[in-house]
Specification:
With 292 residues, the protein is α/β, with parallel strands linked by helices. Helix content is 38%, strand content 20%. α1 crosses α6 and α3 packs across α5. The relative contact order is 0.20.
């Protein structure tokens, strides 16, 4: 007899930050006897598209997707990635001068970087591809420019240069440098019983806390198993960018950044409604009220 009361399907990307934040569950360091989590991995835009189809109970998403799935999925307040002074990079070959309608490679229509890029460069011609192929597409001349994300921002050809940081675009659009740049998080199906949703969120949060507390040991395990795409030096740097202590739980300033991000998408016609992030989180206070 299965001792678990609920099977929860989870999907996250194979990027180092997602793997790191989920690893405590994968290695059995964090568990909940009421839940059995089964995880799959896929690139972020494939996960975005899966959420549009309602494939998984819990799924890593680009924040740029969220307003499109808000009626079916709530946002988790853990396992998030933001940028502070850094983020995706618009790159070109050296000596390239971009025309108004330049051709650009983006990692997916629903990614956060695509939203910001499209607002800043409305006349650019976008083509979408796996982020691992973007650098090659720029070098080969298939596209005039590309937006690098994830680990690819750490190490790219010296034949390329950064045309513009998306952090700078974000600051200009948001009108401030004080708000972190929203990139990605986790969404959970609204049809799950609330107790299960809260338990799942708590388990994922515990996993991030354990990962941060045992960063060195966990990083060594991931490197030994060959499940991350970077070396030890870049892994340490990457995790401090996108799987840091601020990934444990959404803060007030992160919520404000998400509100501004969703407002920008609405104002520029990418979303049909403007949402306030706090209204779309899992109401974890429910258990405290019920048990009081």
């Amino acid at each position: 007899m299965n001792k678990f009361s609920k099977n929860i399907s989870v999907a996250h990307s194979p990027d180092a930050d997602d793997i790191f934040m989920y690893a405590a569950i994968a290695f059995g360091w964090a568990s909940d006897e009421r839940l059995k989590l089964s995880a799959k991995t896929d690139d972020i835009e494939s996960l975005n598209l899966s959420c549009l189809k309602g494939v998984y109970d819990v799924c890593a998403i680009s924040f740029g997707l969220y307003p499109h799935i808000s009626s079916d999925y709530a946002l988790l307040d853990t396992a998030t990635s933001f940028g502070r002074g850094y983020g995706p990079k618009l790159i070109v070959k050296k000596n390239t001068v971009l025309k108004r309608n330049f051709k650009v490679a983006l990692s997916g229509k629903h990614t956060s970087n695509a939203l910001l890029f499209s607002i800043a460069y409305p006349d650019a011609r976008a083509v979408y591809m796996n982020f691992l192929d973007i650098e090659k597409a720029v070098l080969s001349g298939q596209v005039d420019a590309g937006v690098l994300i994830h680990e690819s921002i750490l190490d790219f050809s010296d034949e390329l240069r950064v045309e513009r940081e998306l952090w700078d675009i974000w600051c200009e659009l948001a009108g401030t440098e004080k708000l972190p740049l929203p990139l990605g998080g986790m969404a959970i199906r609204r049809s799950l019983p609330l107790n299960d949703a809260i338990a799942t969120q708590n388990l994922l949060k515990k996993a991030v806390i354990l990962a941060r507390a045992h960063k060195k040991t966990l990083s060594s395990m991931l490197l030994e198993r060959g499940v991350v795409r970077v070396d030890d030096k870049n892994l340490a740097k990457y995790l401090e960018l996108y799987a840091n202590d601020e990934s444990i739980e959404l803060s007030e300033i992160q919520l404000a950044a998400l509100d501004k991000f969703f407002e920008l998408g609405y104002t520029h016609g990418f979303y049909s409604q403007k949402i306030k992030t706090s209204d779309y989180l899992v109401p974890s206070e429910y258990l405290d009220i019920r048990n009081s």
